[in-house]
Model the fold of this input.
Amino acid sequence: MKNKILVVGGAGYIGSHMAKMLACDKQDVVILDNLSTDFRHLAKYGELIVGDLNDTHCLENLFSTHAFNGIIHFAANSLVGESMTNPAKYYRNNVSGTLNLLDVMLRHNVKNLIFSSTAATFGEPEYTPIDEKHPQNPINTYGTSKLMVEKILQDYVTAYGLNSVCLRYFNACGADPEGELGECHDPETHLIPLILQAASGKRKAITVFGRDYPTEDGTCIRDYIHR
Done:
């Protein structure tokens, strides 16, 4: 069965991979992206609509033009450090923007949403491996903004019958097997690309933060998920 899926943030790293997977599965893909941190050339697997979640007129026009079966929501500001120095930006984009999306979904009777959340909602691990029952105590504004959306979604399920799933992954990395899509940030902030740039001579060095972790050399251990 062919569905029409809106991929919000589909010109970004993870969103572009999802758009490609859906298109290869013969689904009808529409991408909404404001291109503030994403790239037009990554939106090659779907119709690209350049627009912002805080533009309610854009959203209303989009949902009036297309009959969506479901929404996959990747759009967010995601720099932890910036979220602490400019929290207003993160609450406005990550929380208010998502509220606009949810409300237009309800007006047009679209009840299926996959939300790209983050493991940052858990905060400092109380035990590992982290599971679904782990307490959620974010330690930065980015994680808090994502947790706010998760709680909003819980209420929207109860009050309005919205079907939603939250994905809390951590440190996504890698590229698709065909080599068409991969990590692409400007400036680059992700660890694996930075390491590869240093190893290839494109960058003089990288910085490892933290020397007081309970490990052999005091540096942290990170888990990665291949996209």
User: Anything to note?
Assistant: The mean pLDDT is 92. The chain is about 35% helix and 15% strand. The two ends are 25 Å apart (CA to CA).
